[in-house]
Amino acid sequence: MPTRPARSTTRTTTRAAARPKEQPAQHRSEDDPRIMLDRQVSADLYQPIPPYPTRTEREAEFYSLGDGQMFLNIGPHHPATHGVLRLVVKLSGEQVVDVDPVLGYLHRGVEKICENSDYYHVIDQVDPLEYVSSLFQEWAAVLAFEKLMDVEVPARAEYIRVLSGELLRVASHTLFMGFLALDLGGLTPILYSFIERDEIVEMLAALTGARMLFNYFRIGGVNGDLNHDFMSRLGDWMSRAARQTEANTGLLNENEIFVRRARGVGVMNREMALRFGVTGGNLRASGIPFDVRRAHPYSVYPALDFNVPTRLEGDSLARYLIRMDEVRESIKIIDQCLHQMPDGPVMARLPRLLRPRPGRAWGAVEGPRGMLGVYAISDGSDQPFRFRIHDPSFMNLEVVSHLLPGNLLADTMAIVASLDPIMGGIDK
Amino acid sequence: MDRALKRRLEARLGAQIRGPIRQRHDQTEIRIQPGGLPDVLRTLHDSVDLRFEILADLAGVDTGREMQVVYHLWSETTPDWLRVIVEGLSREDPRCPSGTFLWAGAEWLEREAYDMFGIVFEGNRDLRRIFMPPDYTSFPLRKDFLLPDDSARSPGEGVRHMERPFAPAVVAGDPADGVRRAPAS
Amino acid sequence: MTFAGRTWGRMSPTARLTAIFVPLALLLAIAAVVAVVLVLPALVNFLGANVPLVRFVVAVVAILVLTIPTAFVLIYMELKVIARVNLRVGPNRIGPWGTATSLVHGFKVLSKEDFAPTGADMPVFTLAPVVTFLASVMTLLVIPFAPGIFGQDFNIGLLFFFAMGGLSVLGLLMAGWASFNKYSLLGGLRSAAQIVSYETPLTISVVGVVILAGTMSMNHIVLAQSGSALDWFVFKQPLAVLIFFIAATAEANRTPFDMTEADSEIVAGFATEYSGMRFGFFFFAEYVNVFIVSALLATIFFGGWTAPFDWPWPYNLNWLAASSIGILWIPIALLALFVGTGVMAVAVRLIGGREWTAPSAFGLGFIITGAAMTALLGLALFIAFDWAQGIFWFMAKTYAFVFTFVWMRGTLPRVRVDQLMGFAWKWLLPASLLNLFVTAAAVIILNR
User: Fold this and answer.
1) Assuming Cys at both sites, which of A259, B78, C118, C169 could form a disulfide with B5, CB separation 3.0 to 4.6 Å?
2) pLDDT at A202 over 90
3) Contacts of A72 in chain C (CB under 8 A)
4) b/e sequence A139-170, b meaning 16+ C-beta within 10 Å
């Protein structure tokens, strides 16, 4: 580590004193083939995407331009990509020929951090993955850890988990609707959906203490019981929820322009959905009724009565309608939870320092975007040895490179928005 | 815990499974060698009584002694998740056949495993880095990855003092099997 | 240092400003008086001999000057109305209820750095906003705002209007090309294609009105609709109104046809690389475009400046005219202002309570009195002069349509570009041709 000079402790002095003179300067702009300086522009005016040597077959195939084709960089800074996503699109006029999504702009190394955190801290670290619906990541992690430690979760805690999870699912789907409409040009539905989401998020803030990154689930239960503030807000919301959902979805369902832009666009058939490992609403919109809550039930879902909406068309409109159906199902589930909620503790008794037995465990939950899985390996110490997160948006976005070609550029955003990706989860 | 599944797996894949089939809670685990991966995956996917059609996850694991690739699969014939651990990949040159012939979605998952561990998947048409920049030289999730060494090669060197993360000593066997790690030095 | 230097250094900013501007103002006043005394008779004679030229110059200057406040009003209206549609409040900080927001936006746009991207084609880049703005503004020359208030009464006024409107395509193409940016190129091409394809149904739908009115002069078209609301062409050409409305939305690049500035796909379309006053020009041109298509809709189909019912002739308010009371009007008005301010200040203090300090009470009193006097003056003008009535009705109708355009922007999503084109060529064009055919046939049959 650099030695500090005796005289001054300013950063520049330290840095200057640290680096020896003969060390070659790194990262000079002239040497970096990815930056095109102004004086080079006139030399190679139409150098599209800086071609560092292509390393793979697919890259070579993508970065070779045919006749009349051009690259368009729908870049990480963009008003409409769902976070920092870079789509390099190969266009022939207005029609998309190929697309190469570039990820990693939001990569935070969560898996590595979790390897150095103890089991309680992992729950806090894993929240900002899909920040819009953060309880589901906590749930998956906690599910895996409970399998590792053979912990029995009290029934009341399970019901509270389902209740808060389904509330957050409604909030996430409402936000999805707003963003889909915004990407298609409607300025109003997003504000309506933020009003809805705000109500739910205030409710959850009364319950968990935070509006967005909740840090609420614990291994063996949840952090706190239901309180009066939460229940009164929940009662208010439930009395209006069904009607409000109908009104909000009516905004878009009956809008001819919206329906025409979403119908038949980005069709994903059954076998493509299965091959790409797509899960969640996108899979069910293509006709495969796979829902982790029914296929591999966890928590108290076996005791709850709800349908799994499935549609066969596989286009953007089907993906949108399925999520709206799921909102109705979630409201039903919340209602049942409130009626069936037993009394009891909300947290199992666990030691303060958690050292599970060595072993491996996989836990998967059904998040708003699909199946969220956590594979945890424990080596007997108080930190997980390997903490692997499988994010549904990751698989959902992968299919975009096969859905976009053939469609117009104007449909790009409609398709990406209808898949509902959240870059925090994709980039981990 | 699906005993019937264990029997079916032993019947179909008996020769290729190394060691016992372990079952715990709702998970069944088989271990195979990398060479046999394509046949095993094909059998699991296509057999009428197995039909593991849904790929749930593809992860890389660095056990400190070797590398593993872990598949999680789901089938409607059994209530259990199936975990396929491809073990025996060396830490210096980890190579594994690709699963993209069966699931095209494995392409990005394998890219992530390559990016984080350096595992080369033979047969993946697009094996390049996915999260880290394309000219990055380390593999972050490996157990011998030290952040100060990595940041020393970046322009951020010398600006902040980086904490030394826990560097595990090399242990015998799979650490998830009960052998305690050496304490932090 | 000199004495002047030391004195200057000791003076406060107010003193400095006074020291500069008061002598300057005196100098200018003296020069103005001298110039007027020497030049004025000759000038008045010259102007008196060329009244049409004077009228034209005044009209052109008025149009150029008045586009800016119009754009400001439209911008404010759009922000507020869309905010209310979105269940928000909109700008409410700057000025009473946020009305000075547009002004501040104008200053902000003026104060930005003026740069151009590397590789941009500078002459074309600079001229593109100018062309777009001028194309929009020149159409205002032929719109009749009131009986007697129009720029020029061409007998091919409508044709001139569409010709000038079509010029804006050139500006958009120039902007898209010269920006050296793929997004801009895409946006420019899309917008050119859109405007060109919607011009045909736009012009053909209006030909029915031309047949009915017998002339292309806008003034005469309005006169042909005088009488009552039932004489308006909207009742005789309902299909044409519909086609015109839709095509005009596309011409003005408004939602649902605002593919060109679809900020979820191509950032800002052709205007991506523009900032500062250049972007301000595009911005203003778009809002002036909205105003002129609304104005055209009002003029051609809804009677222009005619009243919807039989309005009594302008009353003769000559007993209020300057000839009887004379120049005494000015001190009377000032006295009324003073007294009114005082009375209103007292009323404000009594009603509002103690927190209304004297300056704010007087300020509010002044505003109320000024507003009341202006309203009275407006009412007097309205009753007395037919041009005031004409302006009122014209503006009412135009702003009703502007409101409709803004309302549509807040409510509807965007139509995709190929659906847009398909709609124009496959539906609007045949519909407008059908309308023309039916109108022509009806005129021939009914006039036999």
Assistant:
1) B78
2) yes
3) 182-183, 186
4) bbbbbbbbbbbebebbbbbbbbbbbbbbbbbb
Task: Work out the pLDDT band at A37, boundaries 50, 70, 90.
Answer: low
Least confident residue range of B134-138, C145-149, C316-320 = C316-320
Distance from CA of A13 to the nearest CA of B (A): 11
Q: What DSSP letter does each residue of C316-340 carry, written as one string? A: --GGGSHHHHGGGHHHHHHHHHHHH
Residue A422's domain is classified under what CATH number? 1.10.645.10
Q: Are A74 and A219 contained in the same domain? A: no
The pLDDT tens digits for B106-125 are 999 999 999 999 999 998 88
Nearest chain C Cα to A183, which residue?
C264
> In sequence order, what are the beta bridge partners of A389?
A374
β-strands B54-62, A386-390 pairing: unpaired
Q: Does A375 sit within 8 Å of B176, measured CB to CB?
A: no
Poorest-pLDDT segment among A410-419, C403-412, C422-431 = A410-419
B123: left (phi over 0), alpha (psi -120 to 50) or beta: left
Q: Which domain holds residue C138?
A: 106-312+412-447
Chains that touch B (3 or more CB pairs under 8 A): A
User: Is C265 within 8 Å of A413 when comparing Cβ atoms?
Assistant: yes
B180 touching A, CB under 8 A?
yes
Same domain, C331 and C263: no
Q: Of A40-44, A49-53, A133-137, A138-142, where does mean pLDDT reach its minimum?
A: A40-44
All structural domains of chain B:
3-122 (3.30.460.80), 146-185 (no CATH)
Give the model's confidence band at C247: pLDDT under 50 very low, under 70 low, under 90 confident, else very high: very high
Please tell me the distance from the alpha carbon of residue A292 to that of residue C335, in angstroms, as a whole number: 82
Report yes or no: A373 at the B interface, CB cutoff 8 Å.
Answer: yes
B159 shares contact with chain A (CB less than 8 Å):
yes
What is the extent of the structural domain holding A156? 110-427
Classified as helix, coil or strand, A92 is strand
Same domain, C340 and C196: no
pLDDT of amino acid A33: 58
- Cα distance between the two ends of chain C: 95
Chain A nearest-CA distance from C142, in A, is 34
Give me the interface pTM, i.e. the ipTM. 0.83
Cross-chain CB nearest to A184 (options C182, C186, C414): C414
The residues pairing with A101 across neighbouring beta strands, listed in sequence order, are A87
pLDDT tens for residues A370-408?
999 999 999 888 899 999 999 999 999 999 988 889 888
Q: Taking CB atoms and an 8 Å cutoff, what residues of chain A touch B178?
A: 357-358, 380
User: Over the stretch A275-289, which tens digit does the pLDDT of each residue have?
Assistant: 999 999 999 999 999
Tell me the nearest-neighbour CA distance from B108 into chain A, angstroms. 7
Asked if C216 and C268 sit in the same domain, the reply is: yes
Interface with A, mutate which of C246, C260, C409, C414 (most A CBs under 10 A): C414
Mean pLDDT of C44-51: 82
CB contact under 8 A, B72 and A375: yes
Residue of B nearest to A60 (CA): B126
**Is A33 part of any domain?**
no
Closest residue on chain C to A179 (Cα): C264
CB-nearest to B125 from A56, A295, A378 is A56
Query: With an 8 Å Cβ cutoff, are C255 and A70 in contact?
Result: no
CB < 8 Å & 24+ apart, contacts of A120-123: A120/A218, A120/A219, A120/A354, A122/A384, A122/A387, A123/A215, A123/A217, A123/A218, A123/A219
Q: Which chains touch C (3 or more CB pairs under 8 A)?
A: A
* Partner residue facing C264 (CB), from A45, A188, A413: A413
Same domain for A118 and A138? yes
Identity of the residue in A70, A186, A412 whose CB atom sits nearest the CB atom of C265: A412
- In the predicted model, residues of chain B with pLDDT beneath 70 are 148-149, 151-185
C346: enclosing H helix or E strand: helix C329-352
**What is the DSSP-derived secondary structure letter of residue A104?**
-
Where are the strands (E) in A195-284, listed by range? 217-218, 221-222
pLDDT at B33: 92
